[in-house]
Amino acid sequence: MIIHLIHYPVSAKRFVEPLVSALIEAGYDVQLWFENRSELTGFSDSITVPKRYIDFDLTPNPFKCLARLISLFRIFRREKPQAIHTHQSRSSFLPLLAAFAARVKIRIYHNHGLPYLGYKGPKRFLFWMLEFLNSAMATHTLAISLPLLDEMVKSKIASVKKATCLGRGSICGIDLNEFTIEKFDPQNRDIARKKLNISPDAFVVLYVGRPFKRKGYHDLLNAWQIFISENPDANPVLITAGCDLHDAVSINNQPPPGLMPIGYVTDLISYYAACDIVALPSWHEGLPYSLLEAAAAGRAIITTDIPGADTLVENGTTGLLVPVENPKQLSVAVKRLCDDKPLCVKLAENARAVAEKFFDRNISKTLLIEYYNKIGLQPDKVVILRK
């Protein structure tokens, strides 16, 4: 048995279930373990692969951490999994430590990003140490992107021998059957805008993420304020998915003009269809899934010049890169695409081509199965493909 572990139900559904499904189809005996959050019952219930609810995320309470560690150790000793495959920094530490103590032969740490890159001082060191320990306890380390693989090796987190990146990266790629380009053509864009009461001629920017500084949310709102003040006749719209009106008010006391906060939504297809560009000015990332979705939707991208995001976005080719924590330059990039519609279309078309060439989910599934075979994880049964 192989166990995939990721603590958050939404991440389990979006990123790991597709991999587990592919492995099961290939003949592997796989389970998906994650924490059961009462507020996210819908996501938990929608996961159809073999699953188990268990608490294993790091917590500030040392007694809870110890209890979770002991519980995992006992389960691993009892069930003797062939391998564990952990995801994300924080939720990997206890499973890797327990598996190391229980002598699980193959322990894969799948890094989704390097948070320490977005911090300075003691926090930076603590987050670096977490990455170092996770990789040290693992027998194999996977990086979400090639730039982050280089960073992990350069920062002595993992060795070249132990760490690798599958293809161009990402966890599970993007499902191009869901993101068919027809859903985002001009006709569907107009339909989506009509439902949202947005003018067909408006310039629409979409942000998908939580209202955190490290995601660049504060920088984006400040950049938007600059853009509006310098272009009073533009009448653009900024849609923020994952953030509500309270989040914007808490930053600048009042929301900037043109802001459309939609809070947390599960289906973003219509919002990608409605927008012209997607902006994500994060301080650090792995390989942002919202940008993969933007590329698959055929939308131009503005993001920060950081390791991970630059895997997908080449400045001036598939999007525009701006410096971290620089609202002024971010507003300049927004204005550039607002004023230059042909450039916006060109970047969008190129982004879609990159998504098709490197990040199709079928590519990610194939690469993972090949990697499993390479490190000695063979299917438990032979799968006969019928024509």
Describe this entry's structure for a reader.
The protein is an alpha/beta fold. The chain folds into two domains: 2-173 and 361-374, Rossmann fold (3-Layer(aba) Sandwich); 181-358, Glycogen Phosphorylase B (Rossmann fold), CATH 3.40.50. Helices cover 44% and strands 15% of the residues. It has 15 helices and 13 strands. The strands form two sheets. The chain has a seven-stranded parallel beta sheet, with helices on both faces. It has a six-stranded parallel beta sheet with strand order 10-9-8-11-12-13, with helices on both faces. The model has no long low-confidence stretch (mean pLDDT 93).
> Can you tell me the CATH class of the largest domain?
Alpha Beta
Provide the spatial order of strands within the biggest beta sheet. Answer: 3-2-1-4-5-6-7
Strand proportion, as a percent range, falls in 5-15%
Number of H/I helices: 15
Low-confidence region ranges:
none
The CATH H-level superfamily of the largest domain is Glycogen Phosphorylase B
DSSP strand tally: 13
CATH topology of the largest domain: Rossmann fold
Instruction: Give the class from helix and strand content and strand pairing.
Output: alpha/beta
Note the main sheet: 7 strands, parallel
> What is the number of domains?
2
Instruction: Determine the N-to-C terminus distance.
Output: 28 Å
Report the mean per-residue pLDDT as an integer. Answer: 93
SSE pattern, N- to C-terminal: EHEHEHEHEHEHEHEHEHEHEHEHEHHH
Q: What characteristic shape results from the CA principal axes?
A: globular
Q: Roughly how many Å is the radius of gyration? A: 21 Å
The name of the CATH architecture of the largest domain is 3-Layer(aba) Sandwich
